[in-house]
Specification:
Layout: E1 2-7, H1 8-11, E2 14-19, E3 31-43, H2 55-67, E4 72-76, E5 80-82, E6 88-93, E7 96-102, E8 106-109, H3 116-132, E9 138-146, E10 151-155
Parallel strand pairs: 2-4, 4-8
Antiparallel strand pairs: 1-3, 2-3, 3-9, 5-6, 6-7, 9-10
Helix pairs in contact: 2-3
């Protein structure tokens, strides 16, 4: 078994985003974090090049995923209502109006909450799909660091 690891904080794979967690007393208010992502790929073999996969290719698979969230306010898709002015989005948390933001300032998050756990799952799904055509017999693990010392990991093994 071969293991490839990319440590995001050391490779510039970081971003900043705002969010909220409505069912958590401390985190229910709008706030933000600096995030980084670590990716581990376990592979049963290597190619004729001697590599399971080139580190550059792994980083190219990660960058667009995190760039979509960078300097955006993450809002779970269930909390969004279209505003009459199509350039703006109304935010409703548990059906209570919380504000209006420009569409260009938000990232519509495709889970019920934008926790580190669900961010890890979201990134896993996107990165796995990109690597699927490039590798065979691999396992992926994605860790999201929400500030220093706090992390959540998602894998399917």
């Amino acid at each position: 078994m071969y293991r490839i690891e990319v440590v995001g904080a050391l490779k510039g794979l970081t971003w900043s985003s705002g969010h909220y967690v409505p069912d958590n007393e401390k985190c229910k208010n709008f706030h933000g974090h600096d995030y980084s992502i670590d990716v581990i790929i376990d592979s049963d073999g290597v190619k004729s090049s001697g590599m399971a996969i080139d580190f550059t290719i792994v980083k190219q698979a990660i960058k667009p995923v995190i760039e979509d969230m960078d300097h955006k306010f993450m809002i779970p898709e269930d909390d969004i209502r279209q505003n009459e002015n199509h350039g703006f989005i109304d935010i409703y948390v548990r059906d209570k109006y919380r504000g209006t933001m420009s569409r260009s300032d938000i990232f519509v998050f495709p889970h019920s909450a934008d926790t580190a756990e669900f961010i890890a799952k979201y990134c896993y799904d996107k990165i796995f799909a990109k690597l699927l055509g490039l590798m065979e017999n691999f396992r992926l693990k994605v860790t999201i660091h929400e500030g220093p010392g706090n992390m959540a990991t998602y894998s399917e093994n």
